[in-house]
Amino acid sequence: MTETIVEMRHITKRFPGIIANDDINLSICKGEIFALLGENGAGKSTLMSMLFGLYEPDQGEFLVRGQQVKIDSPNQAVALDIGMVHQHFQLVSNFTVTENIIMGVETSKRRLGIFPTVDLKNSEKKVAALSEQYGLEVDPRAVIEDLQISERQRVEILKMLYRNAEILIFDEPTAVLTPQEIQFLLQIIRNLRDNGKTVILITHKLDEIKQVADRCAILNRGRLIAVRDVSQTSTQEMARLMVGHDIAFTLDKKPAQFGEEILRVDSLTVENEEKYEAIRQVSFSVHRGEIYALAGVAGNGQVELADAISGLLPVKSGHIYLKQTDITQESVRARNLRGLSYIPEDRQSVGLILDFTLQDNLVLKRYFQPGFRKGQRIKLERWQSYARRLSQVYDIRSANGIQTVVRSMSGGNQQKAIIAREIDQDSDLQIYVQPTRGLDIGAITSIREKLIQERDHGKAILLISLELDEIMACADTIGVLYHGSLQTEARAGELDMETVGAYMMGAQHE
Amino acid sequence: MNTMIIDGLSYALPLLIIACGGIFSERSGVTNLALEGFLGFGAFTGSLFVALTSSWFSNGSTVPMYLAFLFAMLGGGFYALLFALLCIKFRANQVIAGVVINILSVALTGFLTSQINSSVFGEASNKFQLGVSPRWTVPGLSQIPVLGAVFTKFYPFEILIVILVIFINYLLYKTRFGMHLRAAGDNPQAVDTAGISVAKVRFTAVVIAGMLAGLGGMCYAYSISTNFSPSIYFGAGYLAIAAMIFGNWKLMPTLAACLIFGLARSGAYQLVGYLKLSSNYTNLALAIPYVLTLLLLIFFSKTNRAPRALGEIYDKSKR
Ligand SMILES: Nc1ncnc2c1ncn2[C@@H]1O[C@H](COP(=O)(O)OP(=O)(O)O)[C@@H](O)[C@H]1O
Ligand SMILES: [Mg+2]
What does pTM read for this prediction? Predict the structure, then answer.
């Protein structure tokens, strides 16, 4: 084996109520792509945040290039040539690309011999040169808020390179990208390695690891389970190690039993906040016992459609019928009570109140109902027993039970909480938007199974997803949205993946 | 017309420098309602200096005035330290801390002024008498029609403020400190991961805010009343906040807002005089800038964007 660049010895980190990392021993070689695999909440981010100096380990030590080091701030990490792209980007939105990149390491020149002035011109040149060298296309003068997510990510990468980082940590970099962008990023990561950098890639997507990683370490509930050579390990085995048991890659699904019509959308046109018609003249209906899946590339009106049906966005023209009643003008609560559940795409800002406890989030659609209150007073015992029951039935894990603040829970468990709350409404119509985004395989499988189970209980399911394999795995009927219109609609058996993909890119219906 | 411009400028420029204080503080992410308190305490410190040292200087010397400006800045900055401690070190709610700082400033300066007057000078007064500021006119330039008024009978502090504002523009937009300050008001986490202390940046910003507001207060003490008294708290701090918001937390638009307020006020005065209305109406005229503020805010608040992290207490551990 080649030279070791980072070594971890007995690293342990505890958070209140949980051991995030339990006695981890690892060594990472210079010039490799080292993947860190694990379910949500396995402790991947925590481990790497310690290497980057954001947290300090409770026990254990780090060795960088053979030297024992104490990394107690990001500054220290940068001095050791360690860089990190966080799950949430750390960019100043009203600054330019260059200003963001140089912040903290600016060079100044003196104007009129006295006034030190940040030397933007030269920095811009340096940034342009770096972005050329690594194929990280981005305009050094663009302002961050005008950039797409993938471009912002490139800025984060340039930020590390500008500081001469040799060890680059990526925390779930592909979670926010489209499939094309993911391929582009993986190529960048290969470029980085070929330029002699060491890359640590945190992810829970097995195919990405297969594509780029040299070795991979698997974490489960804070413990290091195994370190494997990627080329000699099958995807199945990695999945098994990650989840801790065997999982099925295909879903068990009986043929659908269509019942009466539950949702009918009739010539619906919806404007988004910029007054642009995001949905144009869309009509379709969903029946009991049916999973109606809407496919489409991001930004083709999916979110607006779901928001309009659930009542978050006003309708410009057209009608929405729920069980034959026109609900186009009804309030959100009226629709909920009539039998509509909504699992929104943006689970953190629409689906949950992050600074509330799990308990309070779980009763959000119940607290006003009889049984949950006595006059204007809330019945706290009822809230507690209800929340406890839901978190048990839906296996929601958290550090302090139902009193955990939701912000501190892992993404998978946050999503489970929303799904628990919404399914427990026993609504006839359930709308799921990107229900498995950012989750690990274990959670994905269990959510998809849940969906099918609800269908079999006679619910109507509207599933909106950007992931084609999710559409193909779950749908009974498939519709494709393109530029706000319904491009095609057919029974799931009548369409194959390539055809749906072609419609998603705008191919016409003959 | 000339008087309107002359008075308008002498009112608008101190307002601008106070608003600049607000910009420093708020662009760094600290909500600042305490400008009124800062300016009062600054003016108090400067005036106290003049009162204590009046015997050192010959009658009519302008040296005490310039020193008073310096001491007003020191006093305002010192008082702002208290606000910075509350907001940044002790993580107090910034709105409440601001209000408390204002109330405390009125009480403290009023009390101290009376106390010092009676114990040091042996007289019962709630004022410190100041000298009269000279006013300058540029020969030639002042003869230009309309625009000439800008160069006519202006206070020395107006030049000082113009120079300072140019320097502030440089400081905020061209230096490392300015970059860090603006970044701290948008995304403090990013500043932190870049290895810069958010607390230090904000602390400095708030102290600068106190210095600038203190200077502005001293200017008003010299221009409006030629003494220091509790009437220094006539709301300029709040008006400066309005100008800053109306100016979208940017220097040039804030300058424009201050000019509008200044001209509206002097114009209203002129109108009252021109229509030969009784002095009762002067009070009404005084309210015009405030009413104007309200109207402007209603129309412009939609397009305005506050610094993203404004009022957010920075917590390292929050994910
Ligand atoms: N700042 C924190 N305070 C309390 N608990 C935390 C904190 N950060 C992470 N955790 C907990 O530690 C565990 C591991 O989290 P994390 O490292 O983010 O997992 P991963 O990145 O593998 O999804 C989770 O259970 C999470 O809830
Ligand atoms: Mg993570």
Answer: 0.78
